[in-house]
Amino acid sequence: MRALFGRSDAVFASLLGPTHLVETANPAFLAALCEDRAHVGAPLAALLPEPLGRSFVALLDDVYRTGEPRIDRDVRIVLDSGPRAREAFFDLTCEPRHDTDGGVIGVRVVGIETTQVRHAQHLMAEQRALLEQIARQAPLADVLDGMARCIENLAPQEVLVSVLLADSDGAHLNHGAAPSLPDFYNRAIDGIATGEGIGSCGTAAYRRAPVIVTDIACDPFWDDFRDLAERADLAACWSTPILALDGSLLGTFAMYHRVPRVPQGTDLALARIFAHTAALAIERHHNERARRDAEAEAKAARDELAEAVRSERALRAEAEQRAATAAELAARIRTAAAAQVVLPHPEHCQLGGADGCTEPAELKVADSWGDAAWGCPAHVEEAIVHVRSAFVASEELGGLAAYVNRRPA
């Protein structure tokens, strides 16, 4: 068994008695339980934090009691305790060990840790949900907030996620999502400039490359923000730029930690995956906003053109009406000029149209052809306005002084 499992990634242990003393175990088994405490000769229950190890111990108790082998998948075991505690899952085969008389003397355990597989499946499911949100054109704030919460739930240690969005010229970063960071911290970094040495995010945006700060307390990038980070209880910040397909800056994706921490390969992979997902969401948002802006501009142009057409039609109708009025008034002047052969100065206004006008004929108006008519001040005004080259006749013809000295209506 040692030769078979000694260097394997699979966990193997041979346990003895009802307390499941670790009689033999390979390094993978001891490492999984935490090497600094796990050792041969210790009862298994003492190596697992209570009550978090009871499910595994209960499985072993069942095999020891019944003498029947068990194959269980995705057995949940919480390893270690306190801040180092982590949730792990194993596919386990547990077989009873027998003495020469056939009695059960212990349990042999062989298993494979499936924690990363489960996390990968969860990651794929969460990413698929986010991509569906993006495809449905969900609000960008909702997508980014959901993404941040998803990563915070997936990470094995406590992590606080922040997404900052670049402005149009890439010179500043604005708040996008940070559901677990304090409000005062989010307000303080909203609008932060991009540039070398401006925190993790400002530097990552400027470099267009990830910036890993493992200890904020002693990193020069955080000189201007160290007190702020201390107030927010932040000790490490890994920032990844969010880039469009053409390489332009869309924002930054940051993972904060309460204690100084160096990222593992899985942490960096998680950052890359979700930075890419965030890029899809942000680019989709920008494209949709550009489309809406273009549609709004096109509608405004159509409305402006329609208004211009309406105005042109109104002006044309007004001009046609003025022309008709002018023609009618010119006709009245000609008719009145013919009537003056008989009556040079009529008593009533001659410009009142079909219905006539009973006002006194006070002023004389003439057109450029020499035709003249007598009318009241109102109809004379109308003739002057509408008939081309119409004018008040000279004083000798009777009316200019009266027109100039007329009383207001």
TrEMBL record:
SUPFAM superfamilies: GAF domain-like (SSF55781)
Gene3D superfamilies reported in the protein's UniProt record: 3.30.450.40, PAS domain (3.30.450.20)
Matches recorded under Pfam families: GAF_2 (PF13185), PAS_4 (PF08448)
Keywords: Coiled coil
Every GAF domain range: 135-292
Coiled coil listed as a keyword: yes
Coiled-coil residue windows: 284-322
The name this protein goes by in its record: GAF domain-containing protein
Organism: Actinokineospora auranticolor
